[in-house]
Amino acid sequence: MPLELISPDEAPASASSGLRHNILSPLEVLSQSISAIAPTTSPALTVPLIFAEAGNGTWLSYLLAATAMLLMALSISYFARTSASPGSLYKFATDSLPPWGGAAAGWALLLAYVATGSSVVGGFINYTGVLLRDLSPSAASHLPAAAGPLLAIAVTTAATLLAYRDVQTSTRLMLWIEAASVSMILVVLAILVVRHGPHVDTAQLKLQNVTLSQVRLGVVLSIFSFVGFESATTLGHEARNPLRTIPRALIQSAVLSGLFFLLGSYVETFSFRQLNQNLATSDAPFHALAPLAHVPIFAPLIDIGAFVSMFACTLACITAAARVLLKMAHDGLAHPHLGRAHAKNETPHIAVLVTGAAVLVPAAVLSARGVSGMDIYGYMGSLAVYGFLTIYFLVAAALPVFLRRRDQLTAAATVLAVVSAGAMVVAMAGTLYPVPDKPYDWLPYIYLAYLLAGLVWFAIVQARQRRATA
Questions:
Q1: What is the pTM of this model?
Q2: Which of 280, 388, 462, 468 has a Cα at 20 to 30 A from 373?
Q3: Residue 206's pLDDT is what?
Q4: What is the DSSP secondary-structure string of 11-22?
């Protein structure tokens, strides 16, 4: 049976997905976006990476990234208020862009979720070492070489099985995991702010020893902290009152995570200065910050929270990627079997297994080759950013077309679309110039080859469709 592209207008509005309908509350929908963002990982892993680039401008990098992501959340919410689909941003793009643009959107979004999942598997491997170091420094230094791949297999298998079984259980679990982790971090940050006193950290406010280029590089890394906020849109068939709950979840997740990251980056920067330690070289910053806040017991607890948060994010990425793949299969861009839902669980079970394997392979292979968990986190996270920037740009570009077809286009919406798309272009340029160090300089070519392969496959599908209808 040849694959066939299906027009969005011809597809059934809901029943065709086979997924369970109207089961997720607004809080559970929000938890999908929050868990895909994995807010615990940013203060624990990403802030030191950004500080290495932007120094005292780390907070500004986060502010600019938060502004760009809020603009994207507002842009996406226009679509989410009128359409609910497991296809997420991919469907929004296909509804308004030329067919090749919709195909590019689907493949970009799929890679973005899969690469993010692999990235946080690397974070999981890293924090396993951190936890072992908490228990016994000698045990952490004697981990066998096979430990990394085995950990990758363990975390992705557990996340895949949970995503295969029940989306409602998955979202509830993710909600409580992140709530506990973020709460402990907030307690430490709040104590440090009180101890610091009401005065402003002038070194950060005046951007001491910071250049514009450093801030720009920091913005690119900061965007990775936010990516995944749009993943609530993949629950369009499973959310209650999706046309209301999903747009709210988009904006809430962007705003709440932005405030959290701003606070974390600001406090970590001035606190490490007080400690006379280099934040850029810290692989577990709360080991230093929790004792400074006089709550040393929180250090291992936050490590545990970050460790479990990596699992939650892996689960969220597999959950989101599987639903995008399901919609792509319905549209003929993937094998029809990937568009099936489990008769009992009402989850996209085959797509879950495929995306789970796709998340596992890069992390396990890199780990088996001796790449550290932190480096896997950095490599795969950077690759994911290319996919997210592509899909965000395409959705912003599609917004004026979408609204014009409905006679709803306004000057404000046009400005929002132009500014949002422009911000994504600037961010993409920041990933390419100045040319990053090896092996990051290879990532744009890997991404471009992947995207071209997806578009070639799309051309093959279209050719088959034309022959079938000739």
A1: 0.88
A2: 388
A3: 93
A4: S-SSGGG-PPPS
